[in-house]
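Field reference: sequence -> structure
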Amino acid sequence: MAGRKSLALVAGDKVHKREPRRHGWSSAKEARFLEALSATCNVTLAAKRARVGNSTVYRRRATDAVFRASWGQAVAQGYARLEVEILERALNGKMRTIVHKDGREEQSVEHDDRIALTLLRMHRDTAREPERIEAAEAAISPAEALEVRDRLLMKLKRVRVQLLGPEKAEEDGWSAIGADSVDLSGMPGIDGETGE
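Structure field:
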């Protein structure tokens, strides 16, 4: 790019020639940054590998929604990879070489129970999720479901009146909607006609 100039609009309608920015953002730098971020989960290290400053990547994240989403995906991938490595270490242990006083070496597998306990604690909620969902579904009676539905309908009516005004809401027929006008036949455990 040496000697090559691009046009830039500066100060109203005056056109000036200037050198292209060499240290600016590029798709190659973005790819390097995101790859390094995914591999390390370390913004400073990823920025160094992409040869950009921390402030540059944070500014880009604040102003570019696509980059912000890619950043989030890279961090999520990095954490998933890290979690797999830690899980493997917890399950299979880590090889350790023991050197005895007589000079002979012995290989030993070392297990760190703290890692295993941390992973169990982290995933306890995920493992119990199906139980919680089942308990929550069983805890709601048909009468409670009807009450919740009626309260939601009333809130929707109030919002509609606030948005459209009372006259327009009346014209659209929303004010006539009541508990009996909503079909509940698809709800488990509730008969659409009786509500029980």
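Note: The chain has a mean pLDDT of 76.
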